[in-house]
Amino acid sequence: MTTTTLTRDATHVAPSRTDVRPAPARIPFRRVLNVELRKMFDTRSGFWLMASIVIASVIATVLTIVLGDREDLTFDSFAGAVGSPMSVVLPIIGVLAVTSEWSQRTALTTFTLVPHRRTVLGAKLLNTLVIGAVSMLVALGVGAVGNLVSSAITGTDPVWDIASSTFAQIVLANELGMLLGFALGLLFRNSPAAIVGYFVVNLVLPGLSGALGAAQEWWADNAGWFDLNQTRFLLFDSNLTGQEWTQLGFTSLLWIILPLAIGLRLVLRSEVK
Amino acid sequence: MITVESLSKSYGGFKAVDDVSFTARPGRVTGFLGPNGAGKSTTMRVMVGLTAPGSGDVHVLGRRFKDLPDPGREVGVLLDASAQHAGRTGREILTIAALTMGLPRTRVDEMLERVSLTPDEASRRVRNYSLGMRQRLGIGTALLGNPQVLILDEPANGLDPAGIRWMRDLLRGFADDGGTVLLSSHLLHEIEVIADDIVVIGNGRIVAQGTKDELLAGAGTLVRSTDGVALATALNAAGITARPTSGGAVLAEAELARVGQAAFAAGIPVTELRAAEGAGLEEMFLSLTADSQREVTSHTDPEGAAA
Asked: Which residues pair with B78 in a beta bridge?
């Protein structure tokens, strides 16, 4: 009984506010990083979005085994099957990492607890990229299990035909997709608009570029310098030439780094309401 | 301590905040009073760095807000209780704030208890919270880091009478412990019952500020009849400075008996006659609310109100 009273008293006697208190230590970046990571998982939608990475990988793998021509299935088949849902889910994670603060108006609390928007956005970006890399490893792992299961069914030796450099390229392609999503999130600060924007860039623009290329020879020859999709998609299934890497760099600058810079500037100056 | 110095903020040509200066002192509750759209929220957003000021400065505890190393541990802020992720539980929202400030998790439970959210309520998603519960949660977030300063925008919105009473006691206790409280409201009564100091804002400008006693003292008499203008004229004729306000009311600068006598002598039936305690403030506030014209504001600005 006595102990209870004592503890209660102890918690109730807060340090008096009249005292001149020493200023607290500066919030370390690691703390912001942890909090932002937690915020990506702690809502139902956030949780299921993350879970969908695993779920989609498993579904894609199972479908490949069930529907595919099992004799010819190699690791590459599974990586391809698992990779396509990833290329849709991951950019959405990139978008929502930013926009949820605005669509749910949590930015009000976030930026009063940490009044350094650059720091918060940096933490979000880093988390997004790490989640992208980890997701790709998970997807690859699920694909590997699929490859083992498939070869066990057919009784053949599994074929591991993905070089680590190829895998690295696929990861890079997906990280670029996430960065594009993140940049659109900063630009629009509105989930539906940014997601629609992403699909316009990814699904509508290639068609337009193709049509333009069919009509205009110059564009057909030089689209690689302007069309991010054309260069980024190369990462999925081929070894890039020096020129193609340069084109990738240039298009990324145009479609990812530039929007990212503009979006960042807008967010840093905007009023949070 | 919060110091606002010559703060201005314009949107296009519209001056939302116009040369606002005031100080909220430790150990006191400062009420920031003004009708909706007067510039209260803009001023408060500038205070905490969510909106960039056009010109002027705000210092909280002697620093600009963004220079506070861990703001949550020095300044508790509640600007909009509804601005929370609907899909998070109350407990999760406090946990995020606690983690950001580097506080132990036990602090979350202490705070839930302090703002009277039961464990069951705390594990519900905010989507299912009433506005009153959101306010409690928001106040909990603000108090979490044991701050020295509280900045609260319309914290009483959505609270039931018992909740308002609870908040009033809580803020009183906070100020009595030496803390600085700045709270805004568009309701005069709310501010009257809780504030020590009052800052009145209308159309982006400070129209009056001072201690509550100073502002409410407003020497004189409030007298009402069916025709306020005629009554004022009669009082003026009797050598009493008087001006009609609204609804037949007249503010007269003389004591009760003399005003009553003058009205009686003029043969004007009086429907109300009382000491004008707070009436000046009330009339000024009503005119601010009723009309947004600056001329009216300066006209009704009671003399001696500016501290």
From this structure: B152
